[in-house]
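Write out structure tokens for Putative acetyltransferase.
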Amino acid sequence: MKLLEPNLEIKDAFYEYINEWKQYNEKIVPTTLRKVNGDYEDYVERWSKESRGMVREGWVANTTFFLVNDDDYIVGSCNMRHELNDKLLEIGGHVGYGVRPTERGKGYATVMLKKCLEHLRTLGVKKALVTCNNENAGSKKVILKNGGIQDESFVEEDGTIVNRFWINLEGELI
């Protein structure tokens, strides 16, 4: 399994991935993929620019990755924020990730988060913030397996409780 940035060669695999989320009537995670309803090529270019820090006001540099197997079958996707702003300190953190519905429970999210943490370390991030909704027991397990230490939770305006975890990137990753 490897992390792969969006590219034109995996366009068909990308749409297959997105369509599976829709078939299961689930919100696509990470949210950066929810807005793809136009030209895939334009989105690949946008994601590339965002990775290089060319972002809209209020956003931070971020990189979107797909977790793929040797056949470029997309198992999951993640969005890694290179730094945190005030909003990301409360909800979102450094990494958002999701695994396609038919591939859950196989350890892919744990692998994907670890690979994102390795990338963050190369950017000089010393501690990564990863968040998940309180009712998402699976994501909480993934974060804890990657060394997450729970911090204060955050309550959104709608009452949703967001758990916040810090992961030290200075030592060896779990």
